[in-house]
Structures are given as structure tokens and as C-alpha cells.
Amino acid sequence: MPARAHEDDAGLDLRADCEVFLRPGQRFLMPTGVRMRIPHGHVGLVCPRSGLAMKHGISIVNAPGVVDAGYTGEVKVNLVNLGERAVMLRAGERIAQLVIVPVDMRPVRTVERLLSTERGDKGHGSTGVK
Q1: Is the pLDDT of residue 5 over 80?
Q2: Closest Cα partner for 32 from 89, 121, 95, 115?
Q3: How far apart, in whole angstroms, are the C-alpha atoms of residue 92 and residue 16?
Q4: Sequence ranges of the domains in the chain
């Protein structure tokens, strides 16, 4: 059962449902044994656990993963070992956190022209690094 480690934590801890030995660079779709219904108008975001990432280089390939309100299958976590050493993940270990947030469900509209903004179409790296 997903649970918060502390009362004020945003994320519900998700646990590994099996044991896996992850080599550097290896990915694994980890089952959690959790099936749930996200409330309408909300989304579940599957996020990495900071300690697992910092200590072992374990992250989530598609972070954050999305669990839509209409999905009722098992929540699985697409793990990757970005570290330099192999890591053993055991069943029951906390591997990710699920943050449930409201989402704007207004319909998308097609428009002829976009209003101009100060930023315009400047993207990826356009503001520099300082």
C-alpha cells in the first residue's frame, strides 16, 4: 500500500514487488503490486526518490511517469541504473514516489495566431547558463 513516510510528505512511497539486479545502464520495468484509481481531474506523477538517485544512481527513465485518472492497471516504475555499480533492489524496498496533483482539464483550442510574448520562440539554452 503506498504510504507517506511523514505526515507532510507530498509523495506516497512505491515499493518494489520483486527483486532485481540492475547493472549500470540497465533498465527494468518494476512492478509495484499497486492498482489504484486516481481521482478525476488529477494525475499521479511517479517521481524518483532522491536518496536512491544520490546513493546508487537509480532513477526513472521517463520521470515523471504519468498515471492517468482513467488507468486502473498496476502501477509500474521504469527504473534505470545511471550509476557506475550494479545495484540489488529487493522486494519491499521504496523505489519511487507517487505525487497526486490536480490537472487542468480544459479543452485544447486551435488558434490562427499566438499573442506575442517577450520570450517568443527562444527555447533550449536561450537564456544562457549564468
Answers
A1: yes
A2: 95
A3: 5
A4: 11-102
Cell of 24: 549500470
- Say if residue 63's pLDDT is above 80: yes
Look up the CATH superfamily of 11-102: Deoxyuridine triphosphatase (dUTPase) (2.70.40.10)
Long-range contacts of 66-73 (CB under 8 A, 24+ apart): 67/36, 67/38, 67/43, 67/98, 68/38, 68/43, 68/44, 69/37, 69/38, 69/39, 69/40, 69/41, 69/42, 69/43, 71/38, 72/35, 72/36, 72/37, 73/35
Three-point CA angle 14, 22, 59, nearest 5°: 50
Q: Alpha carbon of 83 to those of 53, 54, 94: distances in Å? A: 8, 9, 18
What percentage of the chain reaches a pLDDT higher than 70?
100
The per-residue b/e assignment along 81-114, b for 16 or more CB within 10 angstroms, e otherwise, is bebeeebebeeeebbbbbebeeeeeeeeeeeeee
- Pull the grid cell for residue 40: 478525476
